[in-house]
Specification:
The complex is a heterodimer. By secondary structure, chain A is mainly α. Chain A is built from twelve helices and two strands, in the order H-H-H-H-E-H-H-H-H-H-E-H-H-H. Chain A is globular, with a radius of gyration of 20 Å. The termini of chain A are far apart. Chain B is an alpha/beta fold. Chain B has a single domain, classed as Rossmann fold, CATH 3.40.50.300. Chain B is globular and about 60 Å long. The N and C termini of chain B lie far apart (about 50 Å). The interface of A and B includes residues 165, 172, 184 and 185 of A.
């Protein structure tokens, strides 16, 4: 039971990465490798602040802000200096590897004896979990999951509302068809910078809550995150098919949880954890290639 | 009013000579005039349009529009004054957004985007009215992704978007070239109607000599970056598509003469 609950909690926590990748990759067609670095950045900034006694909510927000800054930097490399998306992200990710190490001081810092955001939420939500019939450790885990679901719902709602404002709609237009957005007076470079800032603040938020959930920050914890996010986005889209913005955001979150559950099932069935990232990459590869193969097959049968 | 003063755009071909795609063009388009621009392939007509829209930088000369010197303005800044329709219907509309959301972006042209809602009941009503008056039935598709519309329908929506707030200049860059004849015809009629109804100042590049002969108040024929024919009023009305075709042929054969002369020179000097 606890294992299942914690798989869910982890899936929702990583769902913020998926939402971030949804913004950068789906809305802006920007394969943003910064994600790997900004996930860790969010974790290390929050951890260092928590260890030095800063309020958990403030520490988490600071992690988000750091991620937003990193995303904005990647955006500027692309929009102002004209460096292509992939390379902008690679440069930023590489630079962040040093930043993360310097901020954290060493490669791994535990959060033992520190009150985290999840500890605080647990206290508040525990009565509710008990009310729902959970007991002991399961109740604590359910409370943490409840908090994570609440936070993710708020994030989805805020994103949904934002992307329906004039600015948000202009951002979607700029990500979809830059020529159109420029012809209608939008500075597409500025929109990309803002979009990547939003995307990486979500990724950093994920890093910050994951660090607090697992009880430590590690400079390696962000490796492969962008591919994880893509896998979740693709899986979510496969679950629900063609939907509007709100549906797509929820599907992305669902994709992250589903993918985490699938991974847990695979591990239980005997998948060597060393092959985990390989498998994730394989899933993304399949998701990228399969639609094209299907189209080709349809065209072939149509030609016949 | 649009004023070009000795506008020049030069491209340096690798290892070759510098080509002036726009070669010292001076042009005044009074407010309310509908100008049709034609020219052979590579004549520089698209570069001329791009230099006005802001996608191409002038190497020398200046551009004034509605009492602003826009020579150094960025493309998105010029959009405050200019509405545009592209050749490719996909370039002028965002496929994943609904028809209404596309129009919402257009309704913010030249304004701060801000955090108010993009679509409102009043915008929906206005959009339904404007679209429905041009293509009956289109107003029922406001909530569909614009990518689900046909190319011709998308161009008409783009036209409505470009003229949502009256632009000081409407730029049409071969906006019917990618369409089938029937759809092109409908788009041309919608264009003529919108230009007339809103008294727009418009510059339309076209590859269709028939359109050039029948549409607009003034005709420009561009060749090698220069205006070689500028006809308005009665002179414009007298020009038929056949006249234009004849002039085109003459320009093309003059080009060939030049080329063979150049080749002969190369042979002499090598």
């Amino acid at each position: 039971m606890i294992t299942l609950l914690s798989t869910w909690t982890f899936g929702v926590a990583l769902g913020f990465v998926a939402l971030g990748v949804f913004v950068s990759y789906k809305l802006f067609s920007f394969p943003d490798i910064t994600t790997d670095g900004s996930f860790t950045l969010g974790a290390v900034v929050a951890t260092v602040l928590l260890v030095s006694g800063v309020d958990p909510a403030l520490a988490t927000l600071a992690g988000m802000a750091a991620g937003a800054t990193a995303g904005a930097c990647t955006g500027m490399l692309h929009a102002i200096l004209g460096i292509e998306p992939l390379l902008s992200g690679i440069l930023m990710m590489t630079a962040l590897a040093s930043v993360n190490l310097v901020v954290l001081g060493r490669s791994n810092v535990p959060l033992s004896g520190v009150t985290t955001l999840l500890d605080k939420a647990e206290v508040v939500l525990l009565p509710l979990a008990t009310l729902l019939g959970f007991t002991d450790a399961a109740a604590e885990e359910a409370a943490r999951l409840g908090f994570m679901l609440l936070a993710a719902s708020v994030a989805v709602l805020l994103l949904y509302l934002f992307f329906r404002t004039r600015l948000g709609t202009a951002m979607r237009a700029g990500g979809d068809t830059p020529t159109m957005a420029r012809a209608l007076g939008r500075n597409t470079g500025g929109l990309t910078v803002a979009g990547l800032a939003i995307a990486n603040s979500l990724t950093a938020l994920s890093g910050a809550v994951v660090a607090q959930y697992q009880g430590f920050a590690d400079v390696q914890m962000g490796v492969g995150m962008v591919v994880w996010g893509m896998a979740s986005v693709f899986l979510g889209a496969a679950l629900v098919g063609q939907v509007r913005l709100g549906g797509a955001l929820l599907a992305t979150l669902a994709g992250s949880v589903t993918f985490r559950l699938l991974v847990a099932a695979a591990l239980r069935a005997g998948l060597d954890p060393d092959w985990l990232k390989f498998t994730t990459a394989l899933v993304v590869l399949t998701a990228l290639v399969a639609p094209r193969m299907l189209v080709r097959k349809q065209q072939a049968s149509a030609a016949r | 009013m649009l004023e070009l003063n000795a506008a020049t755009v030069a491209f340096s071909t690798t290892g070759g000579p510098i080509v002036r795609a726009v070669d010292g063009v001076t042009l005044t388009v009074p407010a309310g005039q509908f100008v049709v621009v034609i020219g052979t392939n590579g004549s520089g007509k698209s570069t001329l349009l791009g230099s006005i829209a802001g996608t191409v930088r002038l190497d020398s000369g200046s551009i004034h529009l509605a009492d602003h010197d826009i020579t150094r303005w960025r493309e998105d800044q010029r959009a405050r004054l200019i509405g545009r329709v592209f050749q490719d219907p996909r370039a002028g509309t965002a496929a994943s957004l609904t028809v209404l959301e596309n129009i919402a972006v257009a309704a913010c042209r030249g304004r701060r985007a801000g955090l108010s809602w993009a679509t409102s009941r009043s915008l929906r009503a206005a959009a339904a009215e404007r679209l429905g008056s041009i293509v009956p039935g289109l107003e029922t598709r406001l909530d569909q992704p614009i990518g689900s519309l046909s190319g011709g329908q998308r161009q008409i929506v783009t036209l409505v978007m470009a003229t949502w707030h009256k632009p000081d200049l409407l730029l049409l860059d071969e906006h019917t070239a990618a369409l089938d004849p029937a759809a092109a015809d409908r788009v041309v009629q919608a264009t003529a109607r919108l230009v007339r109804e809103h008294h727009l100042t418009a510059l339309m590049v076209t590859h269709s000599l028939a359109q050039a002969a029948t549409l607009g108040d003034r005709l420009l024929l561009i060749h090698r970056g220069r205006i070689v024919l500028d006809a308005h009023g009665a002179a414009k009305r007298r020009l038929s598509a056949d006249d234009l075709a004849y002039r085109f042929d003459r320009l093309r054969s003059a080009d060939q003469l030049d080329e063979s002369a150049a080749r002969a020179l190369t042979v002499l000097y090598v």
